[in-house]
Amino acid sequence: MPLDERIITEAIVDGYFAKFKSSLELDVAIVGGGPSGLTAARLLAKEGFNVALFERKLSLGGGMWGGGMTYNIIVVQEESAHLLTDVGIPVARYKDNYFTADAVAATTTLASAACLAGVKVFNCMSVEDVVLREVNGIKRVTGIVINSSPVEMAGLHVDPVVLGSKFLIEATGHATEVLHTLVRKNDVKLGTPSGGIEGEQSMWADVAETNTVKNTREIFPGLYVAGMAANASFGSYRMGPIFGGMLLSGEKVAADIAAKLRG
Ligand code: 48F
Fold first, then answer.
1. CA of 70 to the centre of ligand 1 (A)
2. How confident is the model at residue 154 (pLDDT cuts 50, 70, 90)?
3. Which H or E run contains 107?
4. What are phi and psi of 116, to 5 degrees?
5. Residues of the chain with pLDDT > 70: what percent?
6. Is residue 135 predicted with pLDDT exceeding 90?
7. What's the gap in Å between 43 CA and the centre of ligand 1?
């Protein structure tokens, strides 16, 4: 049968815009496709919620591809290893409480598992702002403002579009971009000691890993921080190429939001 290029185009446009249209009112919007965002996305979609993940780059995976300094092995602690093995990623014991996995296998499989769980992934899409509304006298994040990454990269003056979401997960890693935008543009107080973004401290893996999970919470009505963004928001440490905290943070934020959505 001869191929008709117009049908190929039609298939792409129909498929993409069906996905886009079903994302106009989301249960959860996730910004950032690193390990914390991917884990949260998969677990929420598995529960049947309407979940979309927005990633600036073409590839999902954030800072996990390269292990440590491009030596592409990741390390996780025992309590988090289930978040790799649950999706079929081989994990090897190195020493007590130190487990390793191939960084590329982990990254691609976490991404694949999220897609197959029903997460609607919008890669090459940047979140440039949030939507704020006053609900019962309290300001709340009720959506996201997105633009195509090439528009952003080229510095083109093109207006974004807007999607609604009941909850937003800020999982943009060290940069904590979404939260910075919220604080810069609005006279708001976060649920941090200073009411602002505390900023990330230097390397202390042990404390940082514990704090990543503790700091994973609703920092502003409707807005949760997860992964490295949680530590950067609450002034904790960085931890380098150990990824258990990122995975557990994704698991925690998914459970907390799922509980709220179920009422
Ligand atoms: O940095 P990243 O992997 O986030 P994470 O889940 O994991 C952190 C670890 O990779 C590592 C670490 C582990 O010990 O410290 O750094 O906290 O992934 C964040 C993703 O967010 C994307 C960015 O491209 C990256 O893939 N991102 C950042 N800002 C935006 C964004 C934005 N405004 N819109 C869309 N995507």
1. 16
2. very high
3. helix 103-117
4. -70, -20
5. 100
6. no
7. 18
Structure tokens at 178: 């979404």
Q: Look at residue 37 and give its three-state secondary structure.
A: helix
Output the six-digit token pair for 149.
Answer: 């990454």
Look at the block and give the residue holding tokens 């769980």.
Answer: 117
Terminal CA-CA length for the chain: 53
Residue 204 burial (10 A CB sphere; 0-12, 13-18, 19+): middle
- The structure tokens 């195509």 sit at 148
Residue 168, strand partner residues: 29, 223
- pLDDT at residue 31 is higher than 90: yes
pTM over 0.85: yes
- Residue where the block lists tokens 């292990």: 67
Residue 156's SS3 state is coil
Structure-token match 């106009």, residue found = 24
**Hey, which of 56, 104, 146, 151 would you mutate to test ligand 1's pocket, going by the most ligand atoms within 8 Å of its Cβ?**
56
